């Protein structure tokens, strides 16, 4: 085979790979009618949009976050949008008993669970690391350990219902960047833990699927406020990201990427580390 034939073959394989990667998933919207769903961090941002996506498709919902008055309003909108049932439970994931209490409440209200959607994050500064170990310890409880507690509590009921755990993670849990060290550490931890759990569940022939969602920059108020003055890049719409997450969970994809560039960033992450790191450092503004 001459060099041109080899190049053509390589290009064809590349195109086929990309086409398969982005081809439509087998997502049947009807399958979510009546589905029993618990969404965390649903008072605002992507979590709020997730609640609306499930509501629109006729799911039964329990939503949680700390602010009960805001959750009450989200529940009202979910009912208007078509949720078969919608309840809320205020909880602080910094408090370990709250994580299990929320899952227990959802199981009682809905008679079981089909989807556990883990999305909440605690507030964390967007700045150079100041050496505050205690903040990272606290954030690990909110962003990581509470996810494990909720998954552990929900697994028996998800096993019965052939259900799914959906973990909302970040490109910053795959590729290191500046200014978000404690946050990124919790996201790397999530990817490592739930990626490993995917193997263990498969080896045990479990009915439960896990979908890990890798998100890039999304236009939520909290994200936009944080990056102001540090980085200038396109933020993608929260409702679109929520639609992708719901679809990926329902079609039991092991890993989902939104927006498109996150997939390629992960694919090529280790090919040219010197240029990757240069590009990352040059894309931020730093004025000490
Ligand atoms: N936005 C982005 O650019 C982006 C990029 C990549 C990944 N993600 C991921 O997407 C998910 C959602 O991000 P987002 O931008 O929508 O976040 P957000 O707007 O800051 O919302 C965070 C949610 O978590 C809740 N929360 C905060 N502290 C809590 C605590 N101690 N206990 C329980 N709930 C708590 C908040 O509600 P209360 O204040 O009422 O508690 C809120 O509902 C996160 O997992 C994030 O890592 C986001």
UniProtKB/TrEMBL annotation:
<dbReference type="Pfam" id="PF00106">
    <property type="entry name" value="adh_short"/>
</dbReference>
<dbReference type="GO" id="GO:0016491">
    <property type="term" value="F:oxidoreductase activity"/>
</dbReference>
<keyword id="KW-0732">Signal</keyword>
<dbReference type="InterPro" id="IPR020904">
    <property type="entry name" value="Sc_DH/Rdtase_CS"/>
</dbReference>
<protein>
    <recommendedName>
        <fullName>Hydroxysteroid 11-beta-dehydrogenase 1-like protein</fullName>
    </recommendedName>
</protein>
<dbReference type="InterPro" id="IPR002347">
    <property type="entry name" value="SDR_fam"/>
</dbReference>
<dbReference type="InterPro" id="IPR036291">
    <property type="entry name" value="NAD(P)-bd_dom_sf"/>
</dbReference>
<feature type="signal peptide">
    <location>
        <begin position="1"/>
        <end position="23"/>
    </location>
</feature>
<keyword id="KW-0560">Oxidoreductase</keyword>
<comment type="similarity">
    <text>Belongs to the short-chain dehydrogenases/reductases (SDR) family.</text>
</comment>
<dbReference type="InterPro" id="IPR051253">
    <property type="entry name" value="11-beta-HSD"/>
</dbReference>
